[in-house]
Amino acid sequence: MKNLLVLFVFLLSACSVNHGNFTVLSNKIVSTKDFDVGTSKRVRNVEGKDMAHLIIAFPTGTPKLEGALNDAFQKTDTDVMTDVTVKSWFWWIPYVYGNAGWEVVGDAVKTRKN
To answer: Are 47 and 105 in contact (CB under 8 A)?
Structure first.
């Protein structure tokens, strides 16, 4: 029984990586001339995710940082994130199921007029 438990723990693979904290992050074209974080509309603690599933041994897609940013921007109608933490993760039960993705958490700011 003990050997079976040890084997199960080794078969369940997981990894989480903190890629860093960023002052400003965006994948949109932003005019820095008119960029005023202090007076712009701000939504605090926004979370954006992009993930893909791994079924048996076949991925359903490739998660990207850009997708996580787009998710956060779509939720809040913004175009820039400030004080952002970027993470990626992966876990997998071999030949059964797994999940991988990117996550951004921070404040979202709208700088565009439209």
So the answer is: yes
CA distances from 56 to 29, 53, 60, 98 (A): 39, 10, 11, 8
User: Could you give the C-alpha distances from 62 to 74, 80, 83, 99, in angstroms and in order?
Assistant: 20, 23, 26, 11
Domain ranges of the chain: 14-110
Residue 91 to residue 52: CA distance in whole angstroms: 11
Mean pLDDT by 10 residues, the chain (114 residues): 58 81 90 72 93 93 96 93 95 91 95 74
Contact 11, 59 (CB under 8 A): no
Which is it for strands 58-59 and 41-55: parallel, antiparallel or unpaired? Answer: antiparallel
**What share of residues in the chain are helix, strand, coil (percent, to 5)?**
20, 50, 30
